[in-house]
Amino acid sequence: MSTTQIPDVTVLAAIDRAERHRGRPGVSVWLIFEHLGIPRRSRRVRAQLQSLVQDGAIEQRRAHGVDIWVLVSNGRKRLRRAGRVDLPESPQHRDWCNACILAGQEIERFRGTL
């Protein structure tokens, strides 16, 4: 497991992108991990989330019995000041690319059955 610290602004950017893809505020830790491209068992990021809550950049809430993290105005300001933040490929884009590859592989089989 990597010991490299993820910058706070990168965690904020991952929360922001996950919220935008979800279409509403608040995302689970699992979605944050997916948008950061890290394993789900990262304790360091969980501690970092708590630190960002204490700094007032995000809020921790509960929805349907699950902890979620919401980017608040202070966090959005930090994110804007940081400028462009590079994130790994989003889960949605990765799924879309995989679906395109699969469709390309299957099209000949479908043509053969017609």
How would you describe what is shown here?
- By secondary structure, the chain is mostly helical.
- The protein is built from 5 helices and 2 strands.
- The protein has helices spanning 8-22, 29-36, 43-55, 73-82, 91-113, and strands at 58-63, 66-71.
- Strands 1-2 form a two-stranded antiparallel ribbon.
- β1 (58-63) and β2 form a beta hairpin.
- α1 crosses α2 (29-36) and α1 (8-22) packs across α4.
Q: How would you state the average pLDDT, rounded?
A: 88
- DSSP E strands, number: 2
- N-to-C series of helices and strands: HHHEEHH
Radius of gyration: 17 Å
Described by strand count, sense and barrel closure, the largest sheet is: 2 strands, antiparallel
Strand content: 5-15%
Model regions low in confidence, pLDDT < 50 over at least 5 residues: none
Tally of DSSP helical segments: 5
First and last CA, distance? 49 Å
Q: Globular, elongated, flat, extended or rod-shaped: what is the shape?
A: elongated
The level of helicity is: 55-70%
Walk across the major sheet and give the strand order: 1-2
List the helices and strands and how they pair.
Elements: H1 8-22, H2 29-36, H3 43-55, E1 58-63, E2 66-71, H4 73-82, H5 91-113
Antiparallel strand pairs: 1-2
Write out key terms for the chains shown.
mainly alpha, 11% strand, 5 helices, elongated, single chain, two-stranded antiparallel ribbon, 114 residues
Entry summary:
The protein has helices at 8-22, 29-36, 43-55, 73-82, 91-113, and strands spanning 58-63, 66-71. The protein has 114 residues and is mainly α.
